[in-house]
């Protein structure tokens, strides 16, 4: 299991715990935790409605792919640590990370 913190649009933070051995994406965990993630494209990196900003821990999570960057760069608000949660696999690298939900910005 891995623990990370999610900050919602109101600035409220909550710790989330997720299994690392089931191949889930971060988007799937956020949806299962009832966060308002639309994920309109179903995790194919085509809609950017699962946009998050990594506040702590970005170095360990790897670089965004070109497909992911193409979606992020079209958003009204794009940050150097923006990612699509559908493109991040839940792993030990998420331990202690702090993520801010940004997907509602594109609704």
Automatic annotation (TrEMBL):
Residues 1-105 form the 2Fe-2S ferredoxin-type domain. One of its GO terms (biological process) is P450-containing electron transport chain. Pfam families: Fer2. It comes from the Bacteria. One of its GO terms (molecular function) is 2 iron, 2 sulfur cluster binding. Its cofactor is [2Fe-2S] cluster. Keywords: 2Fe-2S, Iron, Iron-sulfur, Metal-binding. Belongs to the adrenodoxin/putidaredoxin family. This is (2Fe-2S)-binding protein. It comes from Algoriphagus formosus.
